[in-house]
Design goal:
Layout lengths: L2 H19 L8 H14 L2 H6 L2 E2 L2 E2 H16 L2 H6 L1 H11 L18 H16 L9 H9 L8 H17 L4 H6 L1 H10 L4 E5 L9 H5 L28 H5 L5 E5 L3
Helix pairs in contact: 1-6, 2-4, 2-7, 7-11, 8-9
Bound molecules: iron/sulfur cluster (3 copies).
One iron/sulfur cluster binds next to helix 13.
């Protein structure tokens, strides 16, 4: 069975769970946790931040941020490829075969680096102002507050604007442009992902270098050029979110998930 046979139900389950939680999801969003820690460090209230909202003796922040960090260190960006609700919405939009124009974005937005700069800006702003600045424009939070049919709240307007812009970006530039170049949480997972042992393994003996896998990758990973052609057995970590699409399309079954470094 293809990887997508497993991945799509998992994505659907997490999307449904996050919609059911609605406003409550904010309490368990790892990026809010990271921002709360940054805000607490900035305002010198780190002890109070960790004491707030305990679950059976554990600080909620410890569980949310610690659990997220541990998960990404072990499983890499499976978070992005299988769990994140906004990633799932973008995947679903891609399945609609939208007429993406594949234009080149402005130079500053090309490649993978802009999201790391945004992450630094939002963390820095959060430390200065003492509250989670990214949440004010977060598309996921805005979608859930709107989907929950809660009393109309003007606070969702910036987030919904970002949803609109990100969909527009997708139509103009690239099917996962938001994830590849913009998302600060994606940048955080990409940093943690660097040490993950859960990777896409390439069987050098079986691969015929047809490059079908590279063309299929939604994150434009150079699956072969940056692995076996550089003497590595695995696809580079960081930007790969383990969606498994490359594994599914390989005509020689040369790709697989594996807990291996290299
Ligand atoms: S990059 Fe951001 S929006 Fe995309 S899947 Fe990852 S966390 Fe979600
Ligand atoms: S699709 Fe398979 S055979 Fe073709 S280049 Fe990729 S890993 Fe090699
Ligand atoms: S390299 Fe493969 S698993 Fe990684 S993002 Fe690309 S298609 Fe998905």
């Amino acid at each position: 069975m293809s990887v997508q046979t497993y991945r799509r139900p998992v994505q659907a389950i997490f999307l449904i769970i996050s919609i059911i939680l609605l406003g409550g999801i904010a309490r368990y969003c790892p990026f809010i946790g990271v921002q709360q820690i940054a805000g607490a460090i900035g305002s010198g209230l780190i002890d109070e931040a960790f004491d707030a909202g305990t679950i059976r003796g554990f600080s909620r922040l410890t569980i949310v941020v610690g659990g997220f960090t541990l998960f990404v260190i072990v499983f890499g960006r499976v978070w992005c490829g299988w769990i994140c609700p906004f990633g799932t919405i973008l995947s679903a939009a891609n399945a609609l075969k939208l007429p993406v124009q594949e234009r080149s974005p402005p130079r500053i937005l090309q490649g993978y680096s802009f999201k790391y700069e945004l992450l630094a800006v939002f963390i820095g702003a959060t430390m200065i102002f003492g509250y989670p600045v990214f949440c004010q424009v977060c598309p996921v939070g805005a979608l859930y507050r709107t989907a929950g049919f809660q009393t109309f709240d003007l606070a969702v307007i910036p987030g919904l604007t970002v949803v609109f812009i990100s969909v527009l970006f997708v139509l103009i530039y690239h099917r996962r442009f938001w994830c590849k170049s913009i998302c600060p949480l994606g940048a955080l997972t990409a940093i943690l992902d660097k040490v993950s042992a859960f990777r896409v393994l390439v069987d050098e003996d079986t691969c015929i270098e047809c490059m079908v896998c590279q063309r299929e990758c939604p994150m434009d990973i150079l699956v072969i050029e940056d692995s076996i052609r550089r003497g590595h057995r695995t696809v580079p970590t960081g930007e790969c979110f383990r969606c498994g699409r490359c594994i599914d399309v390989c005509p020689k079954d040369a790709l697989s998930f594996s807990f291996k470094y290299g």
